[in-house]
Amino acid sequence: MLAVDTDWQLFARAADDGAALAELFERHRHFVYRLGWGVLQSSEAADDIVQDVFLKIRSGRLKAAPKARFTTWLYGLAINTAREHARKRRRFWGAADATELLERQVDEAVDPERADAMRDLAKAMAMLPIRQREVVLLRFYEGFDTRETAEILGCREGTVKAHLHRATQTLRAGLASYKTERT
């Protein structure tokens, strides 16, 4: 039976070994894309995030201590890269961009109510400040616990809880108003 390299082992070789980089890319590109899209709400920007993250890994200049899970470290890198893009482009979430991904996820002909709910959620998420969006994405979409989310974002657990609480309140209010508009 062949031994499978860990992500950290692949990372250590990625600067000099194209196959190691390609394996890391295949293992994690979808997660990095989802985070990039979640922060910037644009397919093109998410593709740029994926490219930039793996180019940074390829450069060999990144320092990482394999004490943490690789995904925790990688998601932190992806979030920071997305923030850099947001600052450069001054681009924030927009409801028009949000419908692009939702149309691919939900077949309106099959489930029109779910399609409406997903559009409403995208509009409500678009209203959140970027840090609250990041917390929601990491906790609910990526399944990280509060400690891991705090580690990825470089903040305290209490800060994550506060952002999550405010985001939840904003999302509830936004979803309630969108639902009322439709009825």
Q: Can you put this structure into words, describing what you see?
A:
This protein is mostly helical and 183 residues long. 77% of the residues lie in helices and 0% in strands. It is built from nine helices and no strands. It is elongated and about 60 Å long.
Give the gist of this structure:
This protein is an all-alpha fold and 183 residues long. It is built from 9 helices and no strands.
Features of the shown structure:
single chain; 183 residues; mainly alpha; 77% helix
How many helical stretches? 9
Beta content: under 5%
Q: Would you report the number of β strands?
A: 0
Shape: elongated
Which structural class fits the helix and strand makeup? mainly alpha
Q: Major β-sheet, in short?
A: none
Regions with little confidence, pLDDT below 50 for 5+ residues = 91-99
Helicity range: over 70%
Q: How do the SSEs run, as a string of H and E? A: HHHHHHHHH
Mind telling me the C-alpha Rg?
18 Å
Mean pLDDT: 81
Cα(first) to Cα(last) distance is: 60 Å
